[in-house]
Amino acid sequence: MSVVLAGLCTVDVVQRVAELPSPGEKVQSLAVDVAAGGPATNAAVTVAALGGEATLLTVLGAHPLATLARADLEAHGVEVVDLLPEHPDPPAVSAATVRDHDGERTVVSRNAAALLTPAPALTPLKPASAVLVDGHHPALALRTVRWARERGIPVVLDAGSWKPVLDELLPFVDIAACSAQFRVPGPGLHERGVPTVITTAGPDPVRWSTVNSSGSVPVPEVAARDTLGAGDVWHGALAYGVGKFELPELIGFANEVAAERVRHAGPRSWVTAVQGKGKQ
């Protein structure tokens, strides 16, 4: 499976602690990790871990911090297409704190909202079984979904929160995979032309609906060690499984992969646990 993923890439600094600190409190971390992050980025790592070809369209630039993210992605088999390779400013940075005993986390991030990303020419891209966009870098998202539509490639939207670009983006989306907090102003997603809508809710069953049917798929019960990026991993597994599985089996597959992620502490420790699952 070859998947094109377009969206945000951050540099994540992750501190693991015994307890989340209170305001004004200073604590010693148990461990620290630095890795590439962001919805499309973590999804791309997932696609590659499952055995697919992952091409990430994003912005990193030439700042020294960008080399950390780029090295992490290269080490995990993700092909990176940097739209602004000479951009001198630091990439988006995310600081996360993860509680050791249950994987709960807090995140403070600076995304790419202020960065005007050009809409690239996408014709050199290889054929893909699916496209995933996260709505960050709006011009990139729109160009990518139009490229996919021209070639009959299914489009998956990682809908974490409402973004203005979604008014234009939604008519091109085949599967909107939403967080429980996602809210649509005005008409609903089906009314806006989205054939399949899926809503995750952490450990609760994942709900899905099409124009003609609906249902839910239970999530495996696991002892959570780290929930950071679990939703991104779920979206990556979903995009990988498009064309390989039908609903609700597709959702069940994504649930199983995300469950492996939360069983493991650290941003990349789960990768070896899911290798081979995509070929089953």
List the topology elements:
Layout: E1 2-6, E2 10-17, E3 31-37, H1 39-49, E4 53-58, H2 64-75, E5 78-82, E6 92-99, E7 105-110, E8 130-133, H3 138-150, E9 155-159, H4 166-169, E10 175-178, E11 196-201, E12 204-209, E13 214-217, H5 230-241, H6 249-263, H7 271-274
Parallel strand pairs: 1-4, 1-8, 2-6, 4-5, 8-9, 9-10, 10-11
Antiparallel strand pairs: 2-3, 6-7, 11-12, 12-13
Helix pairs in contact: 1-5, 5-6
Outline the structure in words.
The chain has 280 residues and is an alpha/beta fold. The chain has a single domain, classed as Ribokinase (UDP-N-acetylmuramoyl-L-alanine:D-glutamate ligase), CATH 3.40.1190. It is 25% helix and 26% strand. It is built from seven helices and 13 strands. The strands form two sheets. Strands 5-4-1-8-9-10-11-12-13 form a nine-stranded mixed β-sheet, with helices on both faces. A four-stranded mixed β-sheet has the order 3-2-6-7. The longest helix has 15 residues, at 249-263. The two termini are 13 Å apart.
Number of domains: 1
Helicity level: 25-40%
CATH architecture, by name, is 3-Layer(aba) Sandwich
Global morphology: globular
What can be said about the biggest beta sheet? 9 strands, mixed
Instruction: Please count the helical segments.
Output: 7
Residue fraction in strands:
25-35%
- CA radius of gyration: 18 Å
Distance between the termini: 13 Å
The CATH class designation is Alpha Beta
Question: What structural class do you assign from the helix and strand content?
Answer: alpha/beta
> What is the helix/strand order?
EEEHEHEEEEHEHEEEEHHH
Question: Which runs of at least 5 residues are low in confidence (pLDDT < 50)?
Answer: none
- Tally the beta strands: 13
At the fold tier of CATH, the topology name is UDP-N-acetylmuramoyl-L-alanine:D-glutamate ligase
- Tell me the CATH superfamily: Ribokinase
Integer average pLDDT: 92
Neighbour order of strands in the largest sheet: 5-4-1-8-9-10-11-12-13
